[in-house]
Amino acid sequence: MVLITLVDENMNHIQRLFDLTGKTAVITGGSRGLGLQIAECLGDLGARLVLSARKADELEAARTHLATRGVEAEWIAADGARESDIGRLADQALSRLGHVDILVNNAGATWGAPAEAYPLDAWDKVMNLNVRGLFLLTQHFGRKSMIPRRYGRIINIASIAGLSGNAPGTMQTIAYNTSKGAVVNFTRALAGEWGVYNITVNALAPGFFPSKMTQGSLDRLGVESMCTGVPLQRLGDHEDLKGAAALFASDAGKHITGQILAVDGGISAV
Fold this sequence. Notes:
Order of helices and strands: HEHEHEHEHEHEHHHE
CATH class: Alpha Beta
Radius of gyration: 19 Å
Organism: Paraburkholderia piptadeniae
CATH architecture: 3-Layer(aba) Sandwich
Keywords: NADP, Oxidoreductase
EC number: 1.1.1.100
Helix content: 40-55%
Family: Belongs to the short-chain dehydrogenases/reductases (SDR) family.
InterPro entries: KR_dom (IPR057326), NAD(P)-bd_dom_sf (IPR036291), Sc_DH/Rdtase_CS (IPR020904), SDR_fam (IPR002347), Sec_Metab_Biosynth_SDR (IPR052178)
Structural class: alpha/beta
CATH superfamily: NAD(P)-binding Rossmann-like Domain
């Protein structure tokens, strides 16, 4: 009986480390795909959520989906590449939540074209959302909520595309790769600056997950080809980011900052 009691107490302690009851989170690109997967995770752990994306109908569908899981979520439609929308999103989220404990910078865009013919407007579109918008929103929440309260968890969604180039004959996504490389070092640099405020800054670097963004590559190359060279021999699924997101968002990861965690079936390790 004593052993069982100790096991139960230890289990409860571990569960408390991941508990997000009473915490608040903003998730950009939260209406579908990887953003919605992370929203499910943080909501299931008890966080109150504000989701953001450009399309109101998709955000409302995500809110309805989360409600079936018992997760409280609101949404704010905003374009993460527009400075005016970013400021409005920050102000409205803080008005609704009171403060923001967790920020998940997930919104992103890609564009495929050969580097020698890459359109400048496509380059700007990718950079404005993936880098500039991410910086501005993080700055808003840091300045207005996290730094004054001396608490924050920032999770940036990078990509294994930011850790290396593309194999010949696969993708031609120079702006996307460049932007995600910037997110990787943005994460490290900000972790160094904001650690003094008890703010952790980490990044997840997903490999290939089926999503609207990756559908074109999957259609062109095929699932079997995309799994070639992946040690686990599969793509990511609708659960595979949740454990890592829970670690970075919770007290279980309170001594982890400036880290880039690849969730990619091992492809970046070989």
